[in-house]
Design brief:
two-stranded parallel ribbon, single chain, mainly alpha, globular, 49% helix
């Protein structure tokens, strides 16, 4: 009985605490999302997003305050749609450039998944609320 309990506990621990995708410095450095801070125009932001889409290294920018906010559903969305949330904190690239980058990713999601992705995306992703109106 004791052995069965230990086996069950280990199995639950493995299932509950595993992550299949982890954002690393190497992943960020290989992406064009980090280059967005040097971009000056919306066209440059679109180009960087397009390159990340082609490379399969997608990010969605979120701008929060001092303390980053992480929800339990973030990893589910990230793994399902193969994207990473990228929190800028208080500083980061120009807001309009982050919005344009995100809009390119939203357009890509719309082409691939139609509107299914909108049901589970975080509401605080930059540019989400006005995405359809801005297009």
């Amino acid at each position: 009985m004791r052995l069965l309990f230990i086996f069950g506990f280990l199995l639950i621990t493995i299932i509950c605490f595993s992550q299949s995708r982890e954002m690393t410095d190497e992943l960020i450095n290989k992406s064009n999302a980090i280059q967005l801070i040097f971009a000056e125009t919306n066209d440059e932001a679109k180009k960087l997003a397009k390159q990340d889409i082609e490379n399969g290294n997608l990010f969605l920018f979120i701008q929060s305050g001092i303390a980053p906010v992480v929800y339990s559903t973030d990893s589910i969305f990230e793994n399902t749609y193969k994207v990473h949330y990228y929190e800028q904190g208080c500083t980061g690239p120009d807001y309009e450039l982050m919005k344009e980058y995100n809009h390119m990713v939203f357009d890509y999601f719309f082409q691939i998944y139609e509107m299914e992705w909108k049901k589970t995306i975080r509401n605080d992703v930059i540019g989400l609320k006005n995405w359809k109106q801005d297009r």
